[in-house]
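Appendix B, Record 12. Input sequence as logged:
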Amino acid sequence: QVQLVESGGGLVQPGGSLRLSCAASGFTFPRYFMRWYRQAPGKERELVATITNAGSTSYADSVKGRFTISRDNAKNTVYLQMNSLKPDGTAVYYCNVRPVHDYWGQGTQVTVSS
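Logged structural output:
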């Protein structure tokens, strides 16, 4: 079955960086678009970044120029490099794939605070 396991979250100061990873299994990883979402306290889950099966990327306006999504098809892993983090980046970050319907990981907490 499809499994997504996120890691790499933590506490970081404003202006700092983190790199999230999502290890995927149970489906043919290279075929599918992969996405990162986040959900801040009291807010709806929002799409942060997408990478297609061909490697094209797109980003929410709020993270453009600061976040980079990438994938390693040999490792069945998708990454989110987050630079210049701001306090509004505090959220649980989720990995997503949609082979038939949505699958989600358990999420990884990112806290941006001094």
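Residues 23 and 75 are 8 Å apart (CA to CA).
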